Amino acid sequence: MTLLSVNLNKIAVLRNSRGDTEPDITRAAQTCIEAGCGGITVHPRPDQRHVRPDDVRALAAMLRGRVEYNIEGNPFADARGSYPGLIALAREVRPTQVTLVPDSDGQITSDHGFELERDIDTLRPIVAELRHIGCRVSLFVDSGATGFEAAVAIGVQRIEIYTGPYAHAFAEGRVHEELERCADTARRAQHAGLAVNAGHDLSQANLGTFKAAIPGLAEVSIGHALIGEALYEGLSTTVRNYLQILR
Ligand SMILES: CC(=O)[C@@H](O)[C@H](O)COP(=O)(O)O
Ligand SMILES: NCC(=O)COP(=O)(O)O
Predict the structure, then answer these.
(1) How do residues 70-84 score in pLDDT, each as one tens digit?
(2) What is the pLDDT of residues 115-140, one digit of tens each?
(3) What structural domains does the chain harbor?
(4) Which ligand is nearest the CA of 207, by number?
(5) What ipTM goes with this model?
(6) Which residue is closest in CA terms to ligand 2's atom 4?
(7) 112 classed as catalytic
């Protein structure tokens, strides 16, 4: 069964737009959990454009023992202001999973993964520390990525396939090539001993095709499209729609 982890970044975008407390990210998480999601994802960024450190802490307190908690981010991004850094946050709240994403501060969103052959040595101590504190470690990678054996050797347990190009190809009606790249990436990662997650720009429209092509898909983390669809359908209904697609 593929786990649905709802990314709540966009709840925080809306909340921060007025500098107040609504919509409440913990209430949104509660609604998603009651609808049946298996996890919650947040991606705190140094510029705190959406999820803030206190959101990370508040969610940790309410999620513990209920659903999986996935925190994403760039482990090499410096602490800034009240942002303590991804590893410091992970040490503090000990989430189920940490997904390492090589985003720079200037990016509007995540748009690429690690190049494992190039990055493996710098990732080694980060992965070791996260495993030491009991977090599952996932690396954000592009379709077509290689170097999975080296990732396993340093303690990485999962990859997350960046599905932005897949979603774009799906929208343009030319999905076959990118879908096969993702399927081949998943097969090679699983053969190396990694479990496979996926995320970015997945939606109710494109998720079913993707899931059917990736046997053993462990988790999808979905936020932007899901929260947008929830504005029309309601959050609980939207989460249930995604769960139905994943059955
Ligand atoms: C890694 C990824 O694709 C998403 O998890 C990311 O969290 C999106 O970030 P924004 O919500 O800031 O666009
Ligand atoms: N890792 C992907 C994620 O958490 C959500 O990405 P998106 O659905 O907001 O594009």
Answers:
(1) 999 999 999 999 999
(2) 999 999 999 999 999 999 999 999 99
(3) 3-246 (3.20.20.70)
(4) 2
(5) 0.98
(6) 221
(7) no
